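Hi support team,

I'm opening this ticket because the web form for multi-chain structure prediction keeps timing out on my end. I have pasted the exact lines I submitted so you can reproduce it. The total is 316 residues across two entries, so I didn't expect it to be a heavy job. Is there a limit I'm missing, or should I split the entries? Thanks in advance, R.K.
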Amino acid sequence: MAENGERREFAHPAEAQFARILDFYQMEWEYEPRTFPLEWDEEGNIVTAFTPDFYLPEQKLYIELTTIRPGLGNVKNRKLRLLQKLYPEINVKLFKRRDIRRLLVKYGLDEPAARYRGTEAQENGG
Amino acid sequence: MIGYELEAYGELAAGIERVLITQEQIEAKTRELGEVISRDYRGKNPLLVGVLKGVVPFMADLLRAITIPVEVDFIDITRFQPSSAQHGAVRLEKDLNEPIEGRHVLFVEDVIDTGMTLNYLLAQLHVREPASLEVCTCFNKLTHRLVDIPVRYKGFDLPDMFVVGYGLDYREQYRNLPFVGLLRVEVFQK
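Hello R.K., no limit was hit. The queue was backed up. Here is the completed structure from your submission:
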C-alpha cells in the first residue's frame, strides 16, 4: 500500500493494476518518489531525467513499467542504461509489455492484460 | 521431450506446445532434494509446510523421498480477486493445525515467482518463533522477482515462459500433468 495510505492518481492504467496487486500482498510502495538526473547541458541544466514508476522501500527496489511495444523502447532503454551507469547503487527492475501482460494474466486480470497483447514470439520467450 | 507423456494426456496435451521438464527429470531432482533434506534435518523431526494447492504434487513426492521422521501441514490463503471492486488484502484462509514455536519448519513451494506470496507467508510464520524456517521450492522463476527470498533447496530454474504442469496451473487446469510444459499462446490469449 502507498506509504502514506493515500490513493493515487496514476499516469497509466497498468500502474494502477500493479499498485492493486502490491496492495493485496501488503507491500509498501511509493509512486514516482524520485527523479534521477541523467544528462546535463553545458550550463548544468538537466536535459534528461528518469523517474521510475514505483519504489518498494523494504526491498530497496525501483520498478519501471513500460507498455511500449518491443523495438519502440529505445529511449527508455537508453535512460535505463544511463541510470545504471550513473547510479550503480540503485536497483531497478524493468517490467516490459510482455511482463506486465503475464503478471495481469496470472492474477486473472484478463481484460486489462488483453490491452498488452503482443506477437507469439513476444509471448513465449521471444 | 518424451512423446508418450503428452499423448497420455490427450485433451490437456492440446494446450501444451512442448515439454520443458520431463517427469523423469522431476523425479530425479525430487529424490536428490529428499536425500539432502534427510541429511540436513536428521534428528530434528521437521515440519514441512505447504500452501495449497499448487504444492500438492511436489509435496507428495518430496515427502516420499525423505527418509527421516517428518510431519506435514498445509495452509491456504485468500486469492487476489480480479473482479472485486474492493481492494482487499491477502490473509490466511486455513491456518496450521499445530503451533510451530521451537519447531524446525521447512516451507515447501511449487514455484516462487514475484516472491510476494511467500514473503507474506514467511512473515506470518516467523513471528511464531520456529527454531528454524527455511524454504524449499521445486521451481524458481527469477525474472519477475520483487522480493529477495533466501531459498535453501531448489529444484529447477524456470525460463520466462508461461508454463503449466506438476502443480502449476492456468485457470486451475493442468496441475495434474506429471511434467512441466509450455502453454500454447492460443490458450492464454483467448
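A quick check on our side: The interface with chain A takes residues 17, 80-83, 87-90, 113-114, 116-117, 119-120, 143-144, 146-148, 159-162, 182, 185, 188-189 of chain B (CB under 8 Å). Let us know if the file doesn't open in your viewer.
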